[in-house]
Amino acid sequence: MKTVDFKKFGLKRGDIVLDLGCGEGRHVINAYLEQDIQSVGVDLSHKDVKTTAEKFEPFAQENQDKSFGLSVANALQLPFADNTFDKVICSEVLEHIPDWEGTIDEIRRVLKPGGTFCASVPRAWPEKICWHFSHAYHAMEGGHLRIFDEKEFRCAIEMRGFHFYAKHWAHALHSPFWWLKCIFWDTQDSNPMVKLYHRFLVWDLMDKPWFTRTLERLLNPICGKSIVLYFRKGV
């Protein structure tokens, strides 16, 4: 399930791309498959990096024009030189990090001048509904530490030398799923409504039927769970 639109991101042959907070690999693997690039994933969780490596194995290609790498690292102390990457993705990560602004500074350090940066975070009003129905949703270890205001979030990034150029919303069909999970938090694993909606999402993800893909595109501006912003680093 991709959040980043690689066309808006400007992914092109020869790019060196960092997926910061790669989790279990959805963007770092998809970027590798999308184009002949050097795709690098970093996460603080050794378990998630190991899972990403396992998921990547069936997709590895004998192609000298692309490469794939993973590392365990702290987002505030990335093990890369200044101006290393042409593109940086940071998707659904910053809401988990106490010093998220320090993370943006580190992204700016490793991104080349003129390089592009995509940040996605939970959209404010769907997220507020989750917080309303469940304290545990955001208070558990590794949970969401904050709800971002889009204008303030964008301004904070622009103040660090980035130029905003595009945005969109994503995953509208997932917003009701998370509301249901939060409403039935203590029984979510056995609740029939949560289980049924999860089956629907898996079907949608695997089969990509025209109706649900069109429905989500129409609903994304209204109730998309994520806001996705694109920036260029100033030269």
What does this structure look like?
Helix 5 packs parallel to helix 8. The chain has a domain of 159 residues: Vaccinia Virus protein VP39 (Rossmann fold), CATH 3.40.50. The longest helix is centred in the C-terminal third of the chain and has 16 residues. It has 10 helices and 7 strands. It has 235 residues and is an alpha/beta fold. Strands 3-2-1-4-5-7-6 form a 7-stranded mixed sheet, sandwiched between helices. The model has no long low-confidence stretch (mean pLDDT 96).
How would you state the average pLDDT, rounded? 96
Task: Specify Rg, calculated over alpha carbons.
Answer: 18 Å
Shape: globular
Helix content: 40-55%
Taking the alpha carbons of the first and last residues, their distance comes to: 32 Å
How many E strands?
7
In CATH terms, what is the architecture of the domain at 6-124 and 144-172 and 223-233?
3-Layer(aba) Sandwich
Classified in CATH, the superfamily of the domain at 6-124 and 144-172 and 223-233 is Vaccinia Virus protein VP39
Name the structural class: alpha/beta
User: How do the strands line up in the largest sheet?
Assistant: 3-2-1-4-5-7-6
Label this structure with key terms.
single chain, 235 residues, alpha/beta, Rossmann fold, 10 helices, 42% helix
